[in-house]
Amino acid sequence: MDIRFNGKAIPIQEGDTVASALYRAGQRIFTRSFKYHRPRGLLCCSGHCPNCLMNVDGIPNVRTCITPARGGMAVKHQNARPSLDFDYLAIAQQFDWMMPVGWYYKNFTNPRLWHLAESQIRKVAGLGDPPPPDAPEAVYEHAHMQAGVAVIGGGEAGLNAAREAASQGERVVVVDDQPRTTLGDSSYTLLSRSYCFGLYEGNLLGVLQSEPHSGVRERLVHIRAKRIVVATGAYEAPLTFKNNDLPGIMLSTAVWRLIHRHGIQPGTSAVIISNETGDSAIAAELRNVGIAVVATVPPSDVLEATGSKHVTGLRTRRGNFACDLVVMCGHRIPDAGLLSQAGAKLEWSAEAGAFVPTELPPNITAVGDVTHALVRAASTLVSMPNKRTFVCFCNDVTSQDICDSIAEGFDHIELLKRYTTTTMGPCQGRMCQLQAIGICARETGREIQETGVTTSRPPNPGVTLGALGGARHHPIRRTPMHYQHEELGAVWMDMGDWKRPRYYKSAQTERESILREYNAVRQAVGVIDVSTLGKLSLKGRDTGKLLDKVYTNRFSDLKPGRVRYAVLCDEAGIILDDGTISRKDEDDFFITTTTGNLEFMEQWLEWWLAGAGWDVQTSNLTSALAAVNLAGPKARDVLSALTNCGLSNAEFPYMACRNAEVAGVPALLMRIGFVGETGWEIHYPAESGEHLWSALMDAGRPFGICPFGVEAQRLLRLEKRHVIVGVDTDALTSPYEAGMAWVVKHDKDDFIGKFALGKLASAPAQQSLVGFTMNANEIPEDGAAILVNGALAGRVTSARYSPAVEKAIGLAWVPAGAAAEGAQIEIRVAGAPVRATVTQRVFYDPDGARLRM
Amino acid sequence: MKRSALHRWHEKAGATLAEENGWYVPFRYSNAEQEAGAVRGSVGICDLSHIHEPLSPYARFLIAGPNTRAVLSKLTSLNLDLTTAYGSVAHVRSLVTRHELGFLVMVPRDYAESVWESLLDAGEEFHITVFGLEASRRLEA
């Protein structure tokens, strides 16, 4: 079994991580550093430091030291050109004098200069590249769990806590980063290969699990736990001395892992840096695998490491030693980030040489090494200012940089962090925080406790955006006739979550198809699915009162069996929604709302009903009802074949409504005319959606019925100059500006917006919504600019070629001065101004004769 | 005959549709005994939209089997220890209630197919099955 590293086959063994396989194959440089492009090799082997980040299967910044190697994986280095071993950008090191700490802030004070430099800097600095847009998509998913006790960390202390809680009958979840199983212990649930990246309000834990099952890259698990046990242990952080970042200088835990987990001998002759005198445990480990231990020196005696691409020796006060491995017995630091996020205090313990958690909040406990019980200080914090002593490996911040920043006045630990970016890289402070605090304390003459610790914030470690996004479950709403539209050749458009036929492909081109639908409605009969309309039933004796209160026109006087157009405004007189209101019976109303406004409308009505003590029951029937609009001069012929309901003008006049059976289905019929022809809107139970649609298509065939989509509907209504709220109006439109003064009834009692509308009625409008006809043959786009004397003065809201006018027509917002009948305006079409003539007249059948045929 | 919001889905899946109280109902997809066995062994979903009030805006699914919670927990943060919970399932407002065989999920019927597909997708790792009315009766027996 192989993985491919930059195209080359690298053999892998059982239990290998990507990094261990590469190391065994002889790779020593794993990354190039962020700023200076210095060679970096394995340092922690625990997924903490930034030194092994690579691109794995197209995903950047993968911690290869904890990523299990799998046959066929494609691994690539990042941030080095052309290769890790020879990176010409390493020249940056020679120019470090040009890049002092805070050089962005110092040098790029001129925005123009910054824009020039930015693209170059981005090429040189940074961390990998995002996957290209056409990269195959990895699969992610989410999961949610409730637990009595969540244990973070599956070490000995964590598992003991888990078993104890389980024995008390708690539902226990253990989060562990290792790829192991519960080994038959089923008293708790184990999330293996998982890490907890954050602890949020209400004991919510964010957990990221790698490859929860085949085919899924990562799963983000939300765990809500009554009690949380933090058993995250302690980790080791590097020591600081000159050239401490050379490949071959490793933490003792990393060396231990390479030897024990992966059977790798990480060198031939080693120097150990440790405070322990005598023969240390790690020295014995090294000798066991045949590594010569050249010397053990205390951290305070170390002067510098030597070597260019790999360590070749260590200069110390006790002499110079040649070696190919330097083992740092570094600071042991309690991994207390989650505790700190939970609200625990971190207090400096000189004995432990670390900040340790105290004052744990209720329902949070800590067990094991994270409590600092067994942690002892590894060394004093000694790093003197030096340009090659690295404190922050992620962002290439040296001890010199930190001292310079403090000298410049950034001497508060939080300021220091932001100015130098120490602790802000992928390790999130794990490798560097203690050193930065130590230097800050020494340079400012303060105690470490007083200097304090920077705030730990989730996510830590980082989380991929794919995991946060989760599975691709975009909800889709389909009308009951969805598949019939599909069979008829629907070309779909999205409206919120809804799918609606934009048009049906019946001819070569879109334009011809839409024209065919248009002609059917104007000359014969057409049918459109309007199930997406919001539909509300309002019952009760005070319904008329409620409608009078919330709508601008009057409804208490609407007679049973009649329909009225309705506009709704807010307190400022701004149009919020429109629709129709049918009075089915004395105390039984049926309201339609625009497709996107239903939920708002439902809440708005509930809001004004609350506490009023009125007898009104509302129910939302949007999903329960299908609806179609049958329209055209032959609509009556088609419908009469399916119903016993009288459809003549005398029996069923324009703006009337009736309950009747259509094709055996109980329905509400409303004779209304959005598209400008005789027609009926039919609302009926969704489970009969397909049945009634089929019946209409069958009955309509002899009359040339044609299903029509949103595009034809928009053209038909535009010729009738019917406004679409939200398309032709915006968040500032009043009925007066929109040319709908007639919908406001000032002579009724108080209603929402009455005061503001009273003012607006008498104030001259600044802008007006007008119709226009193009003087020549151009067709402007929706949203095109209106120009008056060459200056931007308004916009087109809707424009289409009108077969009735034989020119493009539209609706547009223009300054009040340009709104007069016949006024000439200019519209920008394809970049050039073209002339159009303003009209307030309806483009098609202005008297509405066809609606009453 | 009335059709559930998933009627076309059932047809495409090769379901045997039968009449039940004026509704087309998926009776079985392949073999009722196998369907019931798959549910007992892991998890399955069944369309019960025909059991509802007149003029209901909801579709109704039964999700049953030992892996029911594992599947639902991938699509909702609702606390499944409650007998009734109202909230988002697969990004759709839903009502989830406990049922003797598992959970009933009620969603607005125009979202039915979308949520149904999400359940199948989330259940893939458990080899989720669809089951018909016949299998659901066997399970209840």
Summarize the structure.
By secondary structure, chain A is an alpha+beta fold. Chain A is built from 20 helices and 46 strands. Helices cover 28% and strands 32% of the residues of chain B.
CATH topology of chain B: Gyrase A, domain 2
Q: How is the largest sheet of chain B built, in terms of strand order? A: 5-6-7-4-3-8
| Structural class determined from secondary elements of chain A | alpha+beta
Q: What spatial form of chain A do the alpha-carbon principal axes imply?
A: elongated
Mean pLDDT of chain A: 93
Question: Can you give the helix content of chain A as a percent range?
Answer: 10-25%
The level of helicity of chain B is 25-40%
Oligomer classification = heterodimer
**CATH architecture annotation name of chain B:** 2-Layer Sandwich
What is the largest interface, and how many residues per chain? A-B, 40 and 38 residues
Radius of gyration of chain A: 37 Å
Overall mean pLDDT of chain B stands at 94
How do the helices and strands follow one another from N- to C-terminus of chain B? Answer: HEEHEEHEEEHEH
Report the biggest beta sheet of chain B as strand number plus sense, adding barrel if it closes: 6 strands, mixed
Largest sheet of chain A: 7 strands, mixed
Say what the CATH topology of the largest domain in chain A is. FAD/NAD(P)-binding domain
**Gap between N and C termini of chain B:** 28 Å
Q: Per CATH, which architecture of the largest domain in chain A?
A: 3-Layer(bba) Sandwich
Shape of chain B: globular
